[in-house]
Amino acid sequence: MPTLDSYNPPGNLTDFDEGGRRRWHHWLSCRIDEAILGPSPHRVPYDGSRPQFYNATRTPTSDDAMHAPVTWTAFPRRLHKDTSSDKERWELADSSRGDQDEYCEWSVTRNPDNEITQVTFTCEGPEYWELLADYNPAKVLELYQTYVSPKVTEDDLFIDGVYNRRNQWNNSTTRGAMHLIQGSNTLGAEIELAAAATVRRRRIDGREYTGADELIECAGYGKGDRNSDPHIGESVNKLARDRADITLTDPVGLYFDDLATDGWGTPDDSDPKSCWTYLRGDADHPVRAVYEVPAEKGFTVSNITIGGLPITTGAQIADYITIKLTATACRFGKSTAQPRTDCQPVTEEASASGPSSSPMVAAPSSRRTSGPV
Asked: Once rounded to an integer, what is the mean pLDDT over residues 179-200?
């Protein structure tokens, strides 16, 4: 297979003209190149270059290529651990976008009777919007007016001409959600995590790390208390252990995988999944979705039940949403990259709590970043 001519926008979106598409390709290609180089060994001594990660516009993808979707639940795993009941975790997740850290964020619309009429979900990274705003601010305003509210003004979105990703129409769980804003929910984080996970890791005793928790604790490429980070790392590292070269599949992005509605009920016995609609992205790469009952049905989202309970929060729906990314692996069995035998250092806090159960596993780090924008 030849190399890609260029990287496409997430979801194969058409917001850019040709000049904008070139700028997007340049931004994404640079981020991938940076992820291949990895951090300086002086800054992160247990990390470094990632020879099994490649830029598909510079290195061909061979004919043995396979695409490997990686999916995870959109509801924040951390809130399962930190709360004592479903009601508490649902309400907490609905109260702040800062708690929605699985590459999926949402906003809830209610009527005067406090019934939910619509829940909007997004998995679009903020970098796309910042580049689009710099290149074509009028288009950003048009999209906000189309998808969030016709009341949005240019002054609402820009401060001294600079796009504000946490503007008043995109900073809460009640006024709209145009794109991701939670600090870890970035496209740069996805790229860095996938690249770092291609580095194989070996214990002192010679056994190679294979488990999600031990890999993320050793490599420090994300947060261990999420659904996404450990699972992405485990899935990508499995491909690396097959001595394959790995990249993120074009168009690189985060996408909705599915909404499972088994056990849901509607007042008219209609299919509850018929209320789920994708609004942006192509059929295989949706990046924006809404759950809303058509007006002619005469009932609201709050009249739908899940497991016999009425929907009172958007978070109940998030429990049944899966998000995905897709990796491409090729040249199986041909990589000569060797596993690393060093891990991130144990923190003082971890040391104080006692030795690790594994001689090479350290405490989780927070080195999940968005990278430069």
From this structure: 98
CA distance linking residue 287 with residue 255, whole number of Å: 5
CA distances from 40 to 47, 165, 196, 334 (A): 8, 30, 13, 26
CA distances from 34 to 188, 202, 213, 371 (A): 10, 24, 25, 9
Residues spanned by the domain of 94: 1-373
Per DSSP (E only), the strands in the chain are 66-73, 105-110, 116-122, 158-159, 162-163, 245-248, 255-259, 264-265, 276-280, 288-292, 305-306, 309-310, 321-330
Gap between the Cα atoms of 299 and 86, Å rounded: 24
Confidence of residue 345 (pLDDT cuts 50, 70, 90): confident
Longest dimension (CA), the chain: 66
207: how many CB neighbours lie within 10 A of its CB?
11
Q: What is the pLDDT of residues 63-89, one digit of tens each?
A: 999 999 999 999 999 999 899 999 999
pTM recorded for the entire structure: 0.92
CA-nearest of 192, 193, 190, 237 to 212 is 237
Q: Kind and range of the H or E element at 163?
A: strand 162-163
Token digits of residue 261: 């509605």
Number of domains composing the chain: 1
Q: Based on the number of CB atoms within 10 Å of its own CB, is 357 exposed (0-12), middle (13-18) or buried (19 or more)?
A: exposed
Q: What is the pLDDT of residue 86?
A: 97
